[in-house]
Amino acid sequence: MNFDPLNAVLIGVVLLLAVGFYGLLITRNLIKIVLVLQVLVKAVVIALVLAGKDSGNLGLGQSIAATVIVADTVVAVVALALAVQVRIRIGTLDLSKISSLRG
Amino acid sequence: MTEYLYYLLLGLGAAFCAYRAMISKHLLPSTLYLACVSALASVTLYLLGAQEVAVIELSVGAGLVTVLLVYVLSVVGDDNLDPTSIIPKPLAFVLVATISILVGWMAFPLITTPSTSNEVMLAQVLWKHRALDVWVQVALIFSGVLGVLGLLSEKEHKIETQNESIPVAAELKKESHV
Amino acid sequence: MAAILIGFVIGIPWLGALILWRTNDENPRLQHTLAVAFSIAAGFSSLALIFFSSAQTAVDIPMGAFFGSLTFTPDGLAVSLTAIACVIGSLAVVFSVDYMKGEAQLSRYYTFVLLFIGAMAGLVLSGSLLFMFFFWEITALCSYALISFYNDDPKAVAGGIKALIITQVGGVGLLAGALITYSTLGTYQVSDLLESAGTIPANVLAFIAFGFLIAAAAKSAQFPFHTWLPDAMEAPTPISALIHAATMVNAGVYLLARFYPAFVQVPGWALSVTIVGLVSALITAFMALTATDLKRALAYSTVSQLGYMVYAIGVGGFFASQFHLLSHAVFKALLFLAAGAVIHAAGTRDMRRMGALGKQMPFVRNVFVLGALALAGLPILSGFWSKELILEVGLADGPIWAYVGMLLGAGMTAFYTLRITWLVFFGEARESLHVHDAGFAMKVSLGLLAAGTLSTWLLAGSFSGLFHATLPFHSIHELSTLELTEEIFFAPATYIALTVVCLGLGIFWMVRKQAAARKEAQFDILSRESFGFDWLNRQVTSITFKFASVLQETQTGKLNWNVVGILGALLVVLVFLLWSA
């Protein structure tokens, strides 16, 4: 067992990813999907900073992590606004009832 | 060794909060658990030496997104609907477990390279190396804001003409059953 | 000063586009006035820019170390193409004042026209591959939007989408070339690529060269991508003139001309360029022989003439190709706008229904004949000098079979040009169409272009001087106009070509009586279908559609199942990575 502290961070990242993926698979509430996506992004942000630290290039890792946070926040905001619209127009947030994605 | 334990505790705590956020029946507690995840992630980032991103994460992730979620919940009301999932849970579990194990297999153990002496600061990376895409990000934020404003203003418009929107909703429901 | 002017030629049209976007369609007078004012201002700035041309980078905006700088270089190639785009573009706008009178949604029309002109100026002035790609895509977007301007006509929409898809294929080639350049040289600057092309490994350079060739062929509607330009004829006629003469299709030739010094060392590249030019010139000249739609016939001739330019670059005649680009831009804009005046008046594009229109619209007839003679390559009009120059270079430096093919093309050009002119303006009237001569704004732009057709060849000397002074990588000899005319007059190639041209004219003169009444033969149908290339396009789309409808079955519309798909793909990737590690 390698007790380099960075490995512990990695454990956390993998666990967060797993929870996020599992949540995306089983959640049917539109708002909760946004919430779960946030969890996934936290994992990604930590992973990016970790990679930066690990390769001795923390500045670059941080800058990309910041970009990810920005992009993700915009995604969350727009997705929530859409969820509000869906709730108002269709009357439900249940994903299986809003299946107009069907091509 | 103690550092290792700190990180491990933070990671496990974040994962636990994330799990609670996911399985919670109501959306409000979920939101609060998400804020906890964000806070714990932020502490991890701080300990890793990424102070700037830690601050952004704390203010945006734990602050802004939580506020937004609470606001949205106040608009749509807490549905507390979380019916059984469409995907069979064993399938979901197996899929996620396999992926996690494979990712772990590939990533562990980290072999840390010593920090190079010519490390560049965050601000320099952002403004000297990546100037163009920082500007694109600014544009992205603005377009996001504009999009949200458009969507919300449409909402007010729709509330006035709610009667019209009902047939549309009924139609959509009909379609979804077909 | 150059920096300010560059800002003007890109900024003025784009500012105009922004303002016109916000104008109200209730007030067409204001819209016409604004569009004309902005485009003419851009035209004058572009002419002024010619006097400030240099090989030095004039504008350098740092965009961070990862992206390089946003640079603009006003060298001879760039300023001449900018002038073509802005001046002919502004003449097309002036023409639109009459042509688009009473049309709805002028705001959308003028917005995209001005955006188009500005983007074309940016494309040729840009010294950075990344931003070249950016402007390149804007021109693709604008051409799509303008070809589909009549968006209630399904043919127009289909034509626009065809243009968009095919030029996107080319865009991918350009982007790939730019990214490969960055990954080997670590820079997006055009000048760096030209300077250190020799240091790039041969196979990598070949990838870049052929990526750019695909981009150029798709943009300039060259073989095998030539099918989009004729279908783009559903656009309003000033737009056709804009696309054919001022913007869009010149971009492909520009790209080849710009990077010729870097790519000429790639084995097979120059030959491929020659063949692409030759095949396009011949195939479309064949199609033009039997076309019955006035605008389609002109469109085929554009592809054919662009084939001449591409061929010229392939055989090393850089100056000849750019000179022909200039002449072609002027006389083809003239032909298109004159054709637009005819179509506007007659209300049909079918040449079989026209005939003897010359008596009713003498002004349009006169300028059209002038343009047609230039297209056919008769002395002393601009088209003559540039085409002879191309053929001369082709005879001297190119393979002889290609030269013979191009000579044949010249004969066919003469044939179909005379055919078009005859069918529209002369002969006997086949239907009693009541037409009126062109309006004032139409006459202004037609008159200016006719003057240009007569006189642009006088600029040849200063044109070559400009190239010689500002293009360090192309090694162009300076020639005065006098030397050039002497050279052409004493070259045997000129007389061979003139004989062939006269032959083409003579053959049509003998068959002119049958020209209008001919029945469609198998050959006509074949040529209308681009010799099977339209069929190929349709096959590709139908296969794509079939494939998509099969894949559609996997779309349940349930987000959770989509996520299962994504995670499954991730799993496959992970297993693959572990497997190969």
Order of helices and strands of chain B: HHHHHHH
Q: Label the CATH architecture of the largest domain in chain B.
A: Up-down Bundle
The CATH homologous superfamily of the largest domain in chain B is termed NADH-ubiquinone/plastoquinone oxidoreductase chain 6, subunit NuoJ
Characterize the largest beta sheet of chain C: strand count, sense, and whether it forms a barrel.
Answer: 2 strands, antiparallel
Please bin the fraction of helical residues of chain B: over 70%
Number of domains of chain B: 2
Largest interface: A-B, 82 and 99 residues
Mean model confidence by pLDDT of chain B: 76
Tally the helices of chain B.
Answer: 7
Order of helices and strands of chain C: HHEEHHHHHHHHHHHHHHHHHHHHHH
Beginning-to-end CA distance, first to last residue of chain C: 58 Å
Query: Can you tell me the residue ranges of chain C where pLDDT is under 50 for at least 5 consecutive residues?
Result: none
Cα-atom radius of gyration of chain B:
22 Å
What's the total number of strands of chain C? Answer: 2
Distance between the termini of chain B: 59 Å
| Average pLDDT of chain C | 83
Query: Going across the major beta sheet of chain C, what is the strand order?
Result: 1-2
Shape of chain C: globular
Strand content of chain C: under 5%
Describe this structure as you would to a colleague:
The complex is a heterotrimer of chains A (103), B (178) and C (581). Chain A has 103 residues and is mainly alpha-helical. Chain A has one domain: Helix Hairpins, CATH 1.10.287.3510. Helices cover 78% and strands 0% of the residues of chain A. Chain A has three helices and no strands. Chain A has helices spanning 5-26, 30-54, 58-90. By secondary structure, chain B is mostly helical. Chain B folds into two domains: 1-80, Up-down Bundle (Four Helix Bundle (Hemerythrin (Met), subunit A)), CATH 1.20.120.1200; 121-178. Residues 159-178 of chain B have low confidence and may be disordered. Chain C has two domains: 2-528, no CATH class; 540-580, no CATH class. Chain C contains 24 helices and two strands. Chain C has helices spanning 2-22, 28-50, 76-99, 106-125, 129-147, 154-185, 190-195, 202-219, 228-231, 237-246, 249-263, 269-290, 294-314, 318-346, 362-376, 382-397, 400-425, 440-455, 460-470, 481-490, 492-515, 522-528, 533-552, 559-580, and strands at residues 59-62, 69-72. The longest helix of chain C has 32 residues, at 154-185. Chains A and B meet through helix 1, helix 2 and helix 3 of A and helix 1, helix 2, helix 3, helix 4 and helix 5 of B.
